Amino acid sequence: MLVFPGSNDDRDAAWALGALGADAQLVWHAERALPRDTAAVVLPGGFSYGDYLRCGAIARFAPVLVAVRELAAAGGPVLGICNGFQILCEAGLLPGILRRNRDLEFVCRDVRLRVERADTLLTARCEPGQELTIPVKHGEGSWYADEELYGELDAAGQLVLRYAEDCNGSVGDVAGVCNEARNVFGLMPHPEHAVDPLLGSGDGALLLAALVDAARVRTLAPA
Amino acid sequence: MRVTVLVRPKQGILDPQGEAVRGALCKLGFGVGGARVGRLVDLEVEAPTSEEARAQAERMCHELLANPLIESFEIDVGET
N or C: which end of chain B has fewer CB within 10 A? Predict the structure, then answer.
């Protein structure tokens, strides 16, 4: 779990992953290496570097990102949540970009999502078309790609999650995407805030548990 | 060398901030048909010539100051 100056969901996400059986360790942005045997990386929500210039634009230069790029290039699972999604887009690890919400409002509520692709490591515990309820909380989460790029991503099955209701003006109501190799993911909704039905919804655990599954497979695989 | 970089939302890209500004100006009684909000960056660039300063600023825009998916930029190189 990376921690940038201004991250604020790192502990929640680390706790959620821990509850789902992962050994989640916080890694400061200035580190040049990931802990030994790191099987997966999560970039948390928040406001890294104050969101100066554009959300995620500065964080992509963080020293630790070099190691994250290496892990991603080697097929390691990487998940960016909210600000983490913005960072991965700015870093060129995910397609498209997150813009100011269409109605300029900070959207903070539970939203319904539809699983478009259940054939990815993040959605492996979901059914195609399944609806999930997971909260969002962002001012700049309106995902954008031009028509050509959108068509390519749609055809390649990289548009993993869509909002099942109007949320922020995202092109195609896209809420989550993955890279071409399908090991790097970005989501605006916060699965770490939806891991216990007592707090509204446990649907986020479906995604995070699948990430833990993928990390475990990687840990057990011979090097 | 003083360099001014102007970053704008690309044409055709929805600019909700500009729309809000336009709406507010209209409420003040101004007849404003459109408003787009961008960003201005004043730089003091270390470069021997204005050509070199401009070339550097262009690289800065591509690498950081603008996001080519949604923003265009304009560079103005000053005298000193």
Answer: C
- Residue of B39, B64, B65, B72 for testing the chain A interface, max A β-carbons within 10 Å: B64
Q: Which residues of A touch B13 (CB under 8 A)?
A: 144
Alpha helices in chain A (DSSP H): 10-19, 64-73, 83-90, 147-155, 204-220
The predicted complex's ipTM stands at 0.77
Condensed to tens digits (0 to 9), the pLDDT of residues A82-107 reads 999 999 999 999 999 999 999 989 99
Confidence class for position A219, pLDDT limits 50, 70, 90: confident
Place of tokens 């560079």: B75
A2-220: which CATH topology?
A: Rossmann fold (3.40.50)
A223 has pLDDT over 60: no
In chain B, domain spans: 2-77
Indicate the pairing of strand A78-81 with strand A41-43.
parallel
Residue of A nearest to B39 (CA): A53
Does residue A221 surpass a pLDDT of 90? no
A82 is catalytic: yes
pLDDT tens per residue, range B14-24:
898 899 999 99
What is the average pLDDT across A13-42?
A: 96
Q: Do A90 and B67 touch (CB under 8 A)?
A: yes
Q: Residue A104: which of B17, B65, B67 has the nearest Cβ?
A: B17
Per-domain residue ranges of chain A? 2-220
Q: In CATH, what is the architecture of B2-77?
A: 2-Layer Sandwich (3.30)
Q: Is A102 in the B-facing interface, judged by CB distances under 8 Å?
A: yes
